[in-house]
């Protein structure tokens, strides 16, 4: 672990294996098995690392350019198998120090293995921890990046605020968050799909908890910039609820926005 990041942790990891810090968060994130991640390692890691995501590539590149211009160490949260904004950042400047994180230990294990094997580790460091309980000191991080990291944080509290509150705590004063996030286009319609299928709706109502922009501001951040990135209409294969929407003749869409905000 690069000294830049080593000094920012506020507690010892449960385990350090191959320089990756593990904080015992295997039950917090998406509970992928090691086999699932190994399969993705063999199928998508290389493509994602070299070309980045193929969904909204211009938006990812725009965000990456802004991160690179700051030229500060950054932390990618909930990197997932897609590696978030990092492929685009590394493509522009491979030497920016980064701390890449996800609650799922196998994701960081295999990304660490991938970058080592492909001689592109450079200044990349890896840790596995929960976004709602980050083992980091207050006011310690300059920049946070993510793709869907805030929206896909599991067990994020009834008001979906836990991750945002942690980000506010660990970010330095004047520190930045750059994230691309998706929100339901029409909550009421999704609710009606769940109701007519006699299923429990697991999405939170933005009229009750606030839109993501409202929650970012509620956490104490100032929005610097936000813009629409695209609209995605789900396919039946995307999820059970997407298949139900189609069977009910309804269109289930996600609206994706880029958010840049500051402490
Ligand atoms: C849909 S992916 C996010 C997309 C990802 N950034 C990408 O580029 O593919 C969701 C990720 O969030 C992680 N995650 C979910 N809850 C988390 C939490 N509480 N703390 C940290 N990571 C979490 C999951 O393990 C998973 O890898």
**Total of helices:** 11
Average of per-residue pLDDT values: 94
Task: Give the names of the bound compounds.
Answer: S-adenosylmethionine
Order of helices and strands: HEEHHHEHEHEEHEHHHEHE
CATH superfamily: Vaccinia Virus protein VP39
Helix coverage percent = 25-40%
Percent of residues in β-strands: 15-25%
CATH topology: Rossmann fold
Q: Which architecture does the CATH hierarchy give at level 2?
A: 3-Layer(aba) Sandwich
Unreliable runs: none
How many distinct beta strands? 9
CATH secondary-structure class: Alpha Beta
The termini sit apart by 26 Å
Radius of gyration: 18 Å
In total, the number of domains comes to 1
Write the layout of secondary structure elements.
Layout: H1 3-6, E1 15-17, E2 20-22, H2 34-43, H3 45-51, H4 57-70, E3 74-76, H5 86-92, E4 98-101, H6 105-117, E5 124-128, E6 141-147, H7 162-170, E7 171-184, H8 187-196, H9 206-209, H10 212-218, E8 222-233, H11 240-247, E9 253-262
This protein binds S-adenosylmethionine.
């Amino acid at each position: 672990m690069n000294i830049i990041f080593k000094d920012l942790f506020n507690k010892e990891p449960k385990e350090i294996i191959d320089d990756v810090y593990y904080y015992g968060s295997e039950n917090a994130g998406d509970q992928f098995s090691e086999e699932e991640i190994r399969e993705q390692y063999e199928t998508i890691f290389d493509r994602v690392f070299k070309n980045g995501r193929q969904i909204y590539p211009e938006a990812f590149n725009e965000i990456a350019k802004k991160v690179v211009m700051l030229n500060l160490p950054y932390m990618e949260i909930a990197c997932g198998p897609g590696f978030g904004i990092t492929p685009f950042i590394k493509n522009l400047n491979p030497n920016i120090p980064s701390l890449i994180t996800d609650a799922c230990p196998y994701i960081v294990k295999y990304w660490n293995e991938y970058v080592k094997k492909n001689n592109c580790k450079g200044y990349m460091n890896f840790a596995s921890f929960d976004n709602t309980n980050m083992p980091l000191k207050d006011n310690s991080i300059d920049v946070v990046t993510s793709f869907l990291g805030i929206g896909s944080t599991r067990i994020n509290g009834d008001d979906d605020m836990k991750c945002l509150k942690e980000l506010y705590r660990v970010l330095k004063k004047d520190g930045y968050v750059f994230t691309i996030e998706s929100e339901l286009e029409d909550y009421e319609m999704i609710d009606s799909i769940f109701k007519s299928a006699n299923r429990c709706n697991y999405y939170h109502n933005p009229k009750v908890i606030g839109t993501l922009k409202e929650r970012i501001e509620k956490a104490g951040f100032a929005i610097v910039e936000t813009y629409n990135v695209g609209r995605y209409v789900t396919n039946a294969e995307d999820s059970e609820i997407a298949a139900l929407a189609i069977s009910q003749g309804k269109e289930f869409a996600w609206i994706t926005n880029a958010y840049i905000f500051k402490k």
